[in-house]
Specification:
It is built from 13 helices and 20 strands. By secondary structure, the chain is of the alpha/beta class. The protein has three domains: 210 residues, FAD/NAD(P)-binding domain, CATH 3.50.50; 90 residues, protoporphyrinogen ix oxidase, domain 3 (Orthogonal Bundle); 104 residues, Protoporphyrinogen oxidase, mitochondrial, domain 2 (Polyamine Oxidase, Chain A, domain 2, Alpha-Beta Complex). It has a seven-stranded mixed beta sheet, with helices on both faces. Strand 11 and strand 12 form a beta hairpin. InterPro entries: Amino_oxidase, FAD/NAD-bd_sf, Zeta_carotene_desat/Oxidored. This is Amine oxidase domain-containing protein. One of its GO terms (molecular function) is oxidoreductase activity. Pfam families: Amino_oxidase (PF01593).
Length: 465
């Protein structure tokens, strides 16, 4: 069977690997001139690679660690993490239980109540289904009280989800509390995070090599522009011309590749829901049906907006700083070289300025220099002596479908992997539930999507019972 995989992110590459291992040939089409999706790397000079968006692995991330072991990629280094909340004009350490007890923006009673609420949730081990019909706001107010919501959780939710903050399902927050950190051994006292010693790029290269060894192709800077049903069976796939990424994300804006369409027996798409809808020819959309298309249309995303700075000195003592100050126009600071030793980069230091914004937010229209100028007052609020001369270089990245918005009842709106058309499968971040999107769960999703594609084709070949 010949399969077109749409998207060379983690899920797409993993799905192609699993299909190749099952004896099928895959062509992977990718819009961006690089592999890994939101975990794609960039060359920051001096022979060093960094991910365009900040990434690390938790000790609970068994799927991607197992994939690295399977492909012989490594080693993975595990580093102690450090976290802070920026509030009331200073950064408060928030790494250990003792840090919570010292967090004076809340009263001692509120601190104890907040910590006990999280501990009870983690120890009780109740399934996510018990939290799917309640907002995170309602749960926090009931379990922790008004002050923790006003000072900590409310600002964080508003920073990530904007006007939708009060609608976010407790199921989403349950995933944050329950699935990321091990509660046994030394991690009960200190969190450890993993990062591959040579960046994520060796993993993408190893996946590409395995796919191509099975007779497939990994086609970067060559997106899919349209998918049609073929006359007899299978699908006709029209590729976009090189440099299509400069036209944005909408496949309807891509010029078609001059070599013309290709025929595939099956298609596995790993693109966001709105992009998938834009790929479908009218006849194929009609075959999928209104119910599935409606689920695609109800998917909501916030855009990821990430400014990467190279600095000539440390910015803070922390790896991860959550911003709970409403006057600061970004949601987090991720100082990569406070996790990974800067000696790895010849002493250079890198800081990600993280943000999530609504699709129509004016910040998305700013170029790199204008966004940095907009952020500088907020950066100085965290580090008052910051001088622009400290900034040696900067890079800006935007991802329209950076964060699915998980509201109450979300689980009822998730589109299935199988579209209802045999041989056509969709796997994207809206289906990673109750976990949040991330490379670990994308590996799992890619494997599940490959299985569903084979089941779909097998059922169609068997015919009616």
């Amino acid at each position: 069977m010949r399969v077109a995989v749409v998207g060379a992110g983690v899920a797409g590459l993993t799905a192609a690997l699993r299909l190749q291992q099952a004896g099928h040939v895959c062509d992977v089409h990718e819009r961006w001139p690089g592999l890994g999706g939101m975990a794609a790397t960039l060359d920051v000079g001096g022979g060093h690679l960094l991910e365009r968006y900040y990434h690390h692995w938790f000790t609970s991330d068994r799927h991607i660690v197992a994939l690295c072991e399977e492909l012989g990629v490594g080693p993975i280094d595990w580093h102690p993490s450090s976290t802070a909340f920026f509030l009331e004009g200073r950064s408060w350490p928030f790494t250990s239980p003792l840090d919570l007890l010292r967090f004076s923006p809340l009263s001692l009673r509120d601190r104890l109540r907040m910590g006990l609420a999280v501990l009870r949730l983690q120890r009780a081990g109740r399934p996510v289904t018990e939290y799917e019909h309640e907002t995170a706001r309602a749960w926090i107010l009931r379990q922790m009280g008004e002050r923790p919501y006003e000072r900590v959780w409310g600002p964080l939710l508003r920073g990530k989800f904007g006007s939708r903050a009060d609608d976010i399902s407790m199921a989403w927050l349950w995933g944050k509390f329950m699935l990321r950190r091990q509660l046994e051994g030394k991690e009960a006292r200190e969190e450890f995070l993993g990062y591959p010693r040579d960046s994520f790029e060796p993993l993408w290269t190893a996946l590409q090599q395995r796919i191509e060894a099975g007779g497939g192709r990994v086609l970067i800077d060559r997106p899919v522009a349209r998918i049609e049903r073929a006359e007899r069976s299978g699908f006709t796939v029209h590729a976009g011309a090189p440099q299509s990424f400069r036209r944005g994300h909408d496949p309807r804006a891509f010029a078609l590749a001059p070599e013309g369409p290709e025929h595939y027996d099956a298609v596995l798409a790993t693109v966001p829901s709105d992009i998938f809808r834009g790929l479908l020819h009218d006849d194929l959309a009609a075959a999928i049906g209104d119910d599935y298309l409606g689920r695609l249309g109800r998917a909501e995303y916030h855009a990821a907006l990430c400014l990467l700075l190279e600095l000539d000195r440390p910015f803070s003592p922390y790896y991860w700083t959550n911003i709970a100050d409403p006057q600061i126009p970004f949601v987090g600071l991720v100082e990569h070289t406070n996790l990974v030793d800067p000696a790895r980069y010849d002493g250079r230091r890198f800081l990600y300025v993280a943000n999530y914004v609504a699709p129509d937010d004016p910040l998305l229209a700013l170029d790199r220099d204008a966004l940095l100028a907009h952020y500088l007052p907020g950066l100085r609020r965290v580090r008052p002596d910051l001088d622009p001369s400290w900034i040696r270089a900067s890079w800006l990245f935007r991802e329209p479908a950076g964060q699915p918005i998980v509201t109450v009842g979300y689980h009822e709106r998730i589109p299935p992997l199988q579209t209802g058309v045999p041989g056509l499968v969709l796997a994207n971040t809206t289906q990673i539930y109750p976990e949040d999107r991330g490379t670990n769960y994308a590996v799992r999703l890619g494997g599940e999507a490959a299985q569903e594609l084979l089941l779909s084709v097998g059922a169609a070949a068997a015919g009616p019972a």
